[in-house]
Design a protein that fits this description.
two-stranded antiparallel ribbon; 8 strands
Length: 147
């Protein structure tokens, strides 16, 4: 893959790169890694994990989610239901929802599956999948930070 990025009179050429490669942070300076992520996001139209939001980009979670947006919400924990968001997600009639936090293990202060106090989290909606035959809506949510 090759991408040319032009900033005024500077040109950066990215060749044979993969924004998902886990060792990028070890081999390239942070601005180049960020640039790889942004270019990959522009090419695919899908948000990539690992980018920190600006405070103005974070919306208060009110029961609705949109792919690519950042939200601040209260996460509740129970041994029965794991980690859930409050308030509950607003759904169409007769639909069910499932949401996963693929990077929850990166945040040891969060304890899904155990009864523990509620915490404020900031997260990004990475993906929404609707299975119409099952009336199931599935979200993939990336935790950005715990407050």
């Amino acid at each position: 893959m090759e991408t040319t990025v032009i900033f005024g009179n500077k040109t950066i050429l990215l060749r044979n790169y993969d924004a998902w490669f886990p060792d990028n942070k070890e081999h390239y300076p942070a601005p180049v890694v960020l640039l790889m992520h942004l270019v990959a996001e522009l090419r695919t139209g899908q948000p990539l994990p690992g980018l920190a939001p600006k405070e103005a980009e974070i919306l208060e979670y009110t029961g609705t989610l949109e792919v690519g947006k950042y939200y601040r919400a209260t996460a509740n924990f129970s041994s029965d239901h794991g980690m859930t968001l409050a308030p509950l997600l607003k759904l169409p009639a007769r639909h069910t929802v499932s949401y996963g936090f693929p990077n929850v293990r990166d945040f040891p202060q969060l304890t899904p599956g155990k009864d523990s106090p509620a915490r404020k989290i900031v997260f990004r909606v990475l993906e929404k999948e609707v299975t119409s035959s099952l009336k199931l809506i599935t979200f993939s949510l990336e935790i950005v930070r715990v407050e």
